[in-house]
Write a structure and sequence with these properties.
The chain is an alpha/beta fold. 39% of the residues lie in helices and 13% in strands. The structure holds pyridoxal-5'-phosphate. Pfam families: Cys_Met_Meta_PP.
């Protein structure tokens, strides 16, 4: 509301672009000094003018920050920015991507319920579903999420959601999001996307029928791997009366039922809040997100073509490149920008290790969405705990490396890769 009014007055033009929006989201309250950066409020608790005002606050009649584990001004500002940038109904910021995922599932399910999830998942999400939450009686039904009929066979009256990652990592398979949305709508269940790999400047989740997004803001959004964070984004396009576990929250809060249950119950009671300092990093990260992702994408395109031309490289995967199996889906869903990871193969595991050890500009580390270009050998690291046949089933080859492409000058990256592939 405030945002529309602001842009209506100042810009008198069509909906402003991503970065313009990010730089101009109004503060929740005017700053007494007209600071051009949202101040960092490190306070734990907030004072009230009177006993009556505190009572009104606890009754929900007077909205104000009380104690920073539940909400605080700098974190609220980051949430408002992400809400404006995603055009969504509600946003909660949390201490990590895993906190965003676990809070969401805890709010939506109870023992005896089930969710359907893609089987190629971020490792700790897989462990959360398969171990941690399984021990509390939640069943996760894993599926490749490729065949509509097979997915529908997994749905029963206790199914609460379909959960998927927009692009799997490191395989770089792109989900058939339109098919998943069709199934979810037909069966009145929620569609949850982990869109970490495809940030909100390239992926408009609600346009494709996604109800809830969970994001590890640690990655692209933090602005170069500065801090840990996560976000839950509610697109306001699901009828919460269809989920029996939101009961009294639906009656009291209507469209805000999920956000209210998470904020007033799961988030508060499990202590997964984002710190104010982190929220400040994240807000700044959003201002430069579009710029950074565009540069990473340009680097991916140049590096991808270069890797195709390098005779030592046997396989190259980047769905932004024409000829890649994911190219059309990347165009349809992500404006042609399917994240900033390239995976590629050399002839053997030994060749990969020798190559990685010679790199000077590219860093050996497990992260993605950093400003720095990072490389890892997934088969021997991220997937090391998986039995060999499971690694094979997930298409994790011991000849494959994952390159998370940063913002360096691309000529330096090419020169580094070139020298490391020489004998
Ligand atoms: C990193 C990551 C997570 C977990 O996020 P953290 O911030 O590390 O807790 C979840 N999903 C995907 C796709 C990720 O890349």
């Amino acid at each position: 509301m405030l945002l529309n009014c602001f842009f209506g007055k100042i810009l008198k033009m069509k909906q402003p672009g991503f970065t313009t929006t990010s730089l101009n989201v109004p503060y929740p309250k005017p700053d007494p000094h007209n600071a051009l950066h949202m101040p960092l409020y490190e306070a734990v608790a907030f004072e009230f003018d009177s006993a009556e005002q505190i009572e009104a606050n606890f009754k929900g009649e007077y909205i104000a920050h009380v104690y920073s584990r539940t909400s605080s001004p700098t974190v609220e500002y980051f949430e408002l920015k992400l809400k404006a940038l995603t055009g969504s109904h509600g946003v909660i910021a949390l201490s990590s991507g895993m906190a965003a995922i676990s809070n969401t599932i805890l709010a939506l399910t109870k023992a005896g319920d089930n969710i359907i999830s893609g089987s190629r998942l971020f490792g700790h999400t897989y462990a959360l579903f398969n171990q941690t939450l399984a021990e509390f009686g939640l069943e996760c039904r894993f599926s490749e999420l490729r065949n509509e009929k097979d997915i529908e066979k997994l749905i029963d009256k206790n199914t609460r959601a379909i959960y998927f990652e927009t692009v799997t990592n490191p395989q770089l398979d792109i989900a058939d999001i339109e098919m998943l949305a069709r199934i979810a709508q037909k069966h009145d269940i929620l569609l949850i996307a982990d869109s970490t790999i495809t940030p909100p400047n390239v992926f408009r989740a609600a346009d494709f029928g996604v109800n809830i997004e969970v994001i590890s803001t640690t990655k692209h959004i933090s602005g170069g791997a500065t801090s840990f964070g996560g976000a839950i984004i509610d697109h306001g396009n699901f009828d919460w009366t269809l989920n029996p576990n939101l009961g009294s929250y639906t009656e009291k809060f209507g469209k805000n039922a999920l956000i209210a249950k998470i904020r007033k119950n799961i988030y508060r009671n499990t202590g997964g809040s984002m710190s104010p300092q982190t929220a400040r990093n994240m807000s700044q990260g959003l201002d430069m997100l579009e710029l950074r992702v565009e540069k990473c994408y340009q680097n991916c395109m140049v590096l991808g073509s270069y890797l195709h031309s390098n005779p030592k490289v046997t396989v190259v995967n980047y769905p932004g490149l024409e000829g890649d199996p994911g190219f059309d889906a990347a165009k349809k869903y992500f404006k042609g920008v399917p994240g900033t990871i390239i995976s590629f193969d050399l002839e053997s595991k030994e060749a990969c290790y020798s190559f990685m050890n010679k790199l000077k500009v590219v860093r050996r580390a497990t992260n993605l969405g950093d400003n720095k270009t990072l490389i890892i050998h997934p088969h021997s690291t991220i997937y090391a705990e998986f039995p060999l046949e499971e690694r094979a089933a997930a298409n994790i080859r011991d000849t494959m490396m994952r390159l998370s492409v940063g913002i360096e000058n691309v000529d330096d990256l090419i020169a580094d890769i070139e020298q490391a592939t020489k004998e």
